[in-house]
Structure formats: structure tokens, C-alpha cells
Write a structure and sequence with these properties.
By secondary structure, the protein is an all-beta fold. It has strands at residues 3-7, 10-13, 18-25, 33-39, 46-51, 57-59, 67-72, 77-82, 91-100, 105-109, 113-118. It is elongated, with a radius of gyration of 14 Å.
Amino acid sequence: QVQLVESGGGWVQAGGSLRLSCAASGIIFSNSSMGWYRQAPGKQRELVATSTSDGSTGYVDSVKGRFTISRDNAKNTVYLQMNSLKPEDTAVYYCNARLITRFFGYNYWGQGTQVTVSS
């Protein structure tokens, strides 16, 4: 019943921008920590950006100042605005929804969307 539907990936030249979207259903979105991860060929999946239910955000150092995570709780959607893209940003980007409490929790992933940045 849970779905994380990603969109917005594609091909851009270095210096360009993309906005990724992840529409969630079947979860308690407003209480969930949302995140974006990426995995490049031959590399381990890494955390790129997070947005917690209390409004806190965080970024991996390599994207600070270029990427912005945001969420719209009314639309159950989390976004990743990516500016000044570099070839090293090329990866499959995954949406994540996570909730951990004493009595209930979940950890879900989207299907991934390809981002390719040409040099």
C-alpha cells in the first residue's frame, strides 16, 4: 500500500539544474523523516540530503550550497532542487521515508530516478 513515486530525473549539462520530486502515499508523511540518497556506478549508496519532521535539514558536504531539500506536507511530497550540477553528481537518486518510534516504524524506498550530468 506504500508508494514513493519519484520524478524529475534526466540529462543536463554541467552547470544546469534539475528538481526531483517524490510523492508519498500510505505513510504518515508529516511525522516521517524524508531523505534523498544516490548511488553512482561502482559506488555505495550515500545519503545526500535529509528533512526531518521538525524542520531540520542536512546535506553531504559535496552538495552544500548547490542542493536544497524541501517538503510540502499538504501534498505529501519531498523535493530536491539541484543547481550547479557537476558530472560527479551523476547517479541514481532514491527517495527514502523513515519513521522510528518505540512502538511503530518503517523504512521505505522509491524506485530511483537517473540523473546524468554531462561535462
